[in-house]
Design brief:
NADH Oxidase; 4-stranded antiparallel beta sheet; 321 residues; 2 domains; alpha+beta; 10 helices; globular; 8 strands
Amino acid sequence: MSIPITTARRLIELACHAPSAHNTQPWLWQIDGDEIRLYADRRRHLPLEDPDGRNLTISCGAALHHLQFAARALGWVSDVTLLPSAAEPNLLAVVRLERGEPSPQPVNDLAALRRRCTDRRRFTSWPVPPEVLDRLAEEAREWDVRATPVVDLVARFRLELLTSDASALRELDEEAVQEQALWVNRGGSEGVPLAVLPNSEAADVLERPGRFGPGLVPETRAPVDGGDGVIVLGGVADDPIGWLRTGAGLSALWLRATRDGLSVVPLSLPVEVEATRAQMTEKVLEGAFVPHLAVRIGWQAIGRTGLPRTPRRGLDDVLIA
């Protein structure tokens, strides 16, 4: 049974609400009968900041999970094949859909997809309990990704230092900084608009100053005193199939956090910079796995309902005929 074209289009539209590096939205989709194919859009690759395509592939993995999550909510069972053809390196996944039972709370699930966003304002000082971090990490592990909360004070301090080092090293790379700047206040349906960025130079505890610079969102609270949590995602290797799984785990974790009233902010710099990535593996994770991405978890004192959303490409722009 082929999935109705209107349903397939709706699933892809919902999948495109997924997070992506600098809101590049580096994905393309193709509908063929009961299959939906996901391709990497290499035109949106950031060669200086992301030379291996790690962040691009993680972004596509998050979109893939968003698609599966939306499909289940609407009563479709998905069977996914990752990297199905060595001859087509841009073909990241094939999703086959069959009719099934909808999720227990489809309306809430679909609402979470649309509510999920990156709120870069400072978190409150309310601590995120370890059991909450464990629950979110377990949500990610369901997608065959390694996920561990960083709760040990020494490991946390080391991660803060590595993040600061990575930020300093990136600032020395003028070409990479210029590449990033191209995606800030870009206009149109892509990039990071000033309307979603805090107007503080130091919006993040672990990443100061704010990576994208000051924006237009009011930021009036005091700096966080360490109540936020951190979870590191990764795998046994630093490779495309692992990155896709990390993207899926990121999406699963983020959607659960959204439903639980928590905010999530990706922390990619210490992984992007080769020198700090190696130290992160050794000094923070003690060689347990290879990091692909870290995320900060925290509570916001003000709701996200009034926070502008990053723009999205139109459906026809991401569909391959």
